[in-house]
Amino acid sequence: MATRRTSEKPKYQVVDGKLHAQTPEGEIILPLRFKTKLIRAARDIKNGQGDELDQFFYIIDALGDFDTLAVIDELDFVEETTPLVMEFFKAFGEQQRATTGESRASSN
Q: Which of 45, 15, 46 is nearest to 32 (CA)?
């Protein structure tokens, strides 16, 4: 899921339920839809006093995309990884709100 691109793209963009992030190491594509069991486990991490960073790496590790993990591992933690994690959860939350809104509208 990680590829090098030279064309100018937005730093972060959601396309078809995936967050596309442009990094110095190449493009990272992260899914924003998961099985419920993965979300439940991530929630348990937070309840056990873990933070969003712990949840993020749990989710990415569970997806088993080792190419993307290798790219993330090479990012500068403060300048690139932390903003990526924040953008991931922002996009995830926006998608959940949009999906919930669609469900409510269709049930009326």
A: 15
Q: What is the CA radius of gyration of the chain?
A: 15
pLDDT digits (tens, 9 = 90+) for 23-37: 999 999 999 999 999
Supply angle C-alpha 70, 95, 31, rounded to 5.
25
User: Mind listing the pLDDT tens digit for each residue in 53-106?
Assistant: 999 999 999 998 899 999 999 999 999 999 999 999 999 999 888 766 655 555
Contact 23, 76 (CB under 8 A): no
Tokens 């190419």 sit at which residue?
67
Which three-class secondary structure state does DSSP give residue 67?
helix
The identity of residue 81, as a single letter, is: T
Q: For the whole prediction, is pTM greater than 0.90? A: no
Could you give the CA distance from residue 106 to residue 73 in angstroms, rounded to a whole number? 42
The C-alpha angle with vertex 26 and arms to 24 and 29, in degrees rounded to 5, equals 125
